[in-house]
Amino acid sequence: MTDSDTPDRRAKKRARTLDLLAETAIRLFKSHGYEVVTMEQIAVEADVAKGTLYNHFPTKEAVLAHWIHAQLAIDRVHLQPLIERQPDFEAAISVMLDASAAWCEAHRAWIAPYLRFRLLSFEATEREDGAPPSDHVDGFVMLISRGQHTGELRDDLAASHLATLLHHLYFGALMRWLITPGLVLREEFAAIVKLFVEGAARPRTPTVKRRKS
């Protein structure tokens, strides 16, 4: 094996190709609209064979998801200093989800096809180097682990398990926002954070003792 053909170099080359294809697709989506752009158009614009594009991305939704995940990774790096300054889990996760709400509101037309792809794909969450970036799960795991370490969150379940449950709530809030007119996504995310942190049990009201006559 030559120096130019090491696994690390191949992985980096593949990552660059994925990013190039995704950026090309996004330019087309912005210019012509997501629904009308075809995989064939993306291949032509990126100057690759159609088979090459399909080898990397089976569907247009997969291309979109790759780009969205890359944007999330960039945004998470920018938000990290602000997140780390938050005093507790609820404040930190709210910073992340407030930013997500703003992004989703600015790209609303792309959220439905993204969700279709995510809910129909059951890929393993563990990735090799050079694999496409992930969505919010990695950030959720990080913040939940920190919350467990400080004693804010239960630790009888793994952080990855709790992150998956929170992720399902996140998707549920997104779907509710998409189909229900008038909802504010930031408020929907705040509701799932409260539910996740406090649980769904009805708060116990103190019993009022009757005075003896």
Automatic annotation (TrEMBL):
Gene3D superfamilies: Tetracycline Repressor, domain 2. The keyword Transit peptide does not apply. Coiled coil: none annotated. The keyword Cytoplasm does not apply. Residues 15-75 form the HTH tetR-type domain. PROSITE patterns: HTH_TETR_1, HTH_TETR_2. It comes from the Bacteria. Keywords: DNA-binding, Repressor, Transcription, Transcription regulation. Residues 38-57 bind DNA. InterPro entries: DNA-bd_HTH_TetR-type_CS (IPR023772), Homeodomain-like_sf (IPR009057), HTH-type_TetR-like_transc_reg (IPR050109), HTH_TetR (IPR001647), Tet_transcr_reg_TetR-rel_C_sf (IPR036271). This is HTH tetR-type domain-containing protein. The lineage of its organism: Bacteria, Pseudomonadati, Pseudomonadota, Betaproteobacteria, Burkholderiales.
